[in-house]
């Protein structure tokens, strides 16, 4: 049974930083591509960042490029999102998602989310 559990969210002032984590269990983490998504109130869920199963490649939404960094520790089955220079518009529920390296399309596995609130 795949489980993804996010942590690290909270309330931070604009310009501040937060580090989100996602602990994975029930999967062979090292063969899963991982991603972060977010959903703000009244808005659709949007892509934030993706990292390949090896950690060698990553890509970001334009809105977070240069401010957020996605990383993974395959030895600890953990995904991270380092967020800096946070803006009020980054306020959202942040989810991690997993997809097997042999799969494509939608991410089948999701965590429950961790709330990030950025005050102005």
Describe the model.
This protein has 120 residues and is mainly beta. The protein has strands at residues 3-7, 10-13, 18-25, 32-39, 46-51, 58-60, 68-73, 78-83, 92-100, 109-110, 114-119. The N and C termini lie far apart (40 Å). The model has no long low-confidence stretch (mean pLDDT 97).
Low-confidence stretches: none
Helix/strand order: EEEEEEEEEEE
Number of strands: 11
> What percent of residues are in strands?
over 45%
Cα end-to-end separation:
40 Å
What's the main sheet like?
Answer: 7 strands, mixed
The helix content, as a percent range, equals under 10%
> What is the mean predicted local confidence, pLDDT?
97
Given the C-alpha coordinates, what overall shape results? globular
How many helices? The count is 0
Q: Oligomeric state of the chains?
A: single chain
Backbone CA Rg: 13 Å
Structural class: mainly beta
Briefly, what is this?
The chain has strands at 3-7, 10-13, 18-25, 32-39, 46-51, 58-60, 68-73, 78-83, 92-100, 109-110, 114-119. The protein is mainly beta.
Secondary-structure map:
Elements: E1 3-7, E2 10-13, E3 18-25, E4 32-39, E5 46-51, E6 58-60, E7 68-73, E8 78-83, E9 92-100, E10 109-110, E11 114-119
Parallel strand pairs: 2-11
Antiparallel strand pairs: 1-3, 3-8, 4-5, 4-9, 5-6, 7-8, 9-10, 9-11
